[in-house]
Amino acid sequence: MLTIYRDTGQSLRTIRSLELPKEVIWIDLHDPSDDEKTLVQERSGFHIPSREALSEIEASSRLAVEDGIIYLSTPLVALGDGNDPHLTPVGFILSQSLLVTVRFDELPAFATVAERVRRDATLRSGAGIFTALLEAIVDRGADVLERLESELNKVSRSVFRGDPNKLYKTVRSSAALRHALVVIGRIGDRLSQAREVLLGVDRVVPYVLGLKQAWIVPEFEDRLGAVAKDVASLNAFDDHLTNKVQFLLDAVLGFINIAQNDLFKVLTIVSVVGIPPTIVVGVYGMNFKFMPELNWTWGYPFGLAMVLLSVLLPLAWLKWRGWF
């Protein structure tokens, strides 16, 4: 899909000249067709990269300048509010008068800036749109990290404190621990995606500022500098959350090991306690002709007492040894 911003009524498809009107400051290509890419290339003179080219990870492929035109790419998170967030490549092609973006998924930051362009007449250049997009991406990243922190705090409370309405009973059931592992794994995956986005922005901003292009006015330089500072603080916060994820993962796995050890301890106690009564019952189950207890009036209760005593004595000894 091809979207033109600040189009004064002349459609890009009906402009016969190869030069774009000055009113066009941003062309957004969302999962473009070959015809749309060819059209924009002919009208703007920019080379429109493919999805495969935007997905390359080496710095020379993500950051480049050709004939004064800046080519940038970075991964962003699509479907960040859904159940299947994933990284998607995004390309920025920036010149003095025009910004062309190439993306393949819906991205909230683009929708936010598009709405701002429609109602804010002060955005009059591609550099301004580019700066606004990076600011929106960083704001979005901060919101995601704050939400992940809240989810981590909930997991931490459930693991270490149990039900807040029943403080005396800490959650240790297998189902609760399994659920905690799933949540921690999902949060860890989201943090990894956030780190890739922040790393991409952290490469883009210093590169653009280092080019010292005259058409990037001091206002945009200051705003891009603020974006770089925000990214640095978010990277530190991401490190903190990553460490917390690792701590909770180790804690949950530790509780699982403790639960398994408790299970084996119970089985061991049961097997040890079961041996003496088995011996007693085996003795009185032998078929000998002369067994004095058979003629006792209290022989049967005596046999039951022996069985009971053979159970209680090992239990008392194990309790004294601190096994349970």
Descriptive overview:
About 60% of the residues lie in helices and about 10% in strands. Strand 3 and strand 4 form a beta hairpin. With about 325 residues, it is of the alpha+beta class. The protein has helices at about 35-45, 50-55, 60, 110-120, 125-160, 175-210, 220-285, 300-320; strands at about 1-5, 25-30, 65, 70-80, 85-95, 100-105. Strands 1-2-6-5-4-3 form a 6-stranded mixed sheet, sandwiched between helices. The protein contains 8 helices and 6 strands, in the order ββαααββββααααα. The radius of gyration is 35 Å and the shape is rod-shaped. It folds into 2 domains: about 1-260, Beta Polymerase, domain 2; about 265-320, Up-down Bundle (Methane Monooxygenase Hydroxylase, Chain G, domain 1).
Keywords:
324 residues, alpha+beta, Methane Monooxygenase Hydroxylase, Chain G, domain 1, 2 domains, 8 helices, 6 strands, rod-shaped
Summarize the topology.
Elements: E1 2-5, E2 26-30, H1 34-44, H2 51-54, H3 59-62, E3 63-66, E4 69-78, E5 86-94, E6 99-103, H4 108-119, H5 126-160, H6 174-210, H7 218-284, H8 299-320
Parallel strand pairs: 2-6
Antiparallel strand pairs: 1-2, 3-4, 4-5, 5-6
Helix pairs in contact: 4-5, 5-6, 5-7, 6-7, 7-8
